[in-house]
Amino acid sequence: MKHKQFAVIGLGRFGLSLIKELSRMGHDVLAIDRDEGIVEDAVDVAAHAVKADATDEQALKSLGIRNFDVVVVAIGENIQSSILATIILKEMGVKKVVAKAQNALHGKVLEKLGAVVIYPERDMAIKLARSLVSQNVLDHIDLSPHYSIMELVAPQAFVGKSLVELGVRKKLGVTILAVKRGEEIIVAPRAGQVLNAGDVLVAVGKNEDLQRLSELED
Predict the structure, then answer these.
(1) Counted domains in the chain
(2) Cα dihedral angle (151, 98, 208, 105), rounded to 10 degrees?
(3) Would the pTM count as exceeding 0.85?
(4) pLDDT per residue as tens digits for the range 138-194
(5) S-S: 152 plus which of 73, 135, 136, 210, CB 3.0-4.6 Å?
(6) Is the confidence at residue 3, as pLDDT, over 80?
(7) How many other C-beta atoms lie within 10 A of the C-beta of residue 55?
C-alpha cells in the first residue's frame, strides 16, 4: 500500500479516532487544532501535532498544507469555521478535501465548495440500525444514495442450493460478487455455485433489494 500524507483539522472524538487508525495503517498524519491542550493529547497519536487556526490562511500555508494528499476538516460544532477552512483549503489547491458535516444544509454548502462530504454520526446510526434489524448483516458499504454493497451470512434456506436455483438476481435484483467460506474467497461465483452453512455473501444492488435479502428468514 502506498503511504500517503494526511492532515486532520479538528481533534474531537472523530478526528482523534481517524488519526489513530490512519497512523496504525502506517500513514503520516498531521494533527491540527486551535486548542493547545487538545493538541498535546494528540502528540502520542499523530506523527506531528500543531496548534493552528484553520481559518488563518497564512498559518495553513506555513504548514505546507497544500502538499498533503488528503486534508480532513473534522471541526465539530463550529460550522462557520468548517466552511471557511474548506474554502481556504480548496483555494490553496489541496488535492482532496474531506469535510465532516453536521447536517444536510451544512453538507450541501461543503459539496458546493468541492469537498467530499461525510456524515459520521448519521452513517453510524444507519449502520447500527441495519445491524439491529437483521442479525445476518455483517457489513454495509454505501456506493451511492441508492446502491450499496452488503456482507451477510447466507440464510439457512439458501444452504445446499445453487445461486441459479435461488434466483437471487432474477427475484431480488441483487448480484453476488463473492462468497466467503472460512479463509477461502470465491470471487464472481458461477451460477451453479452451491452455498454451504456459514457462507458469507458479498452482494451489490439497490438498497431496497438488499434490505429484502437481509430480511429473508433463516
Answers:
(1) 2
(2) 150
(3) no
(4) 777 778 778 889 898 998 889 999 999 998 888 889 999 999 998 899 999 999 999
(5) 136
(6) no
(7) 19
Cβ(75)–Cβ(9) under 8 Å?
Answer: yes
144 and 191 both lie in a single domain = yes
CB 40 within 8 A of CB 50: no
Residue type, 87: I
Mean pLDDT throughout 79-94?
Answer: 96
Residues 77, 142 share a domain: no
What distance, in Å, lies between the first and last C-alpha atoms of the chain? Answer: 39
Q: What is the DSSP string of 57-96?
A: HHHHHHTTGGGSSEEEE---S-HHHHHHHHHHHHHHT-S-
**Phi-psi category of residue 83: left, alpha or beta, with phi > 0 → left and psi -120 to 50 → alpha:** alpha
* Chain segment 99-125, per-residue pLDDT in tens: 999 998 999 999 999 999 998 887 777
Residue 210 has pLDDT above 60, yes or no: yes
Strands 184-187 and 175-181: antiparallel
The helix/strand/coil state of 138 is strand
Q: Which range marks the domain in which residue 149 is found?
A: 123-214
Alpha helix locations (H) across 93-138? Answer: 104-112, 120-133
Q: Which of 73, 90, 118 is the endpoint of a domain?
A: 118
Measuring CA to CA, which residue among 204, 108, 198, 129 is closest to residue 160? 198
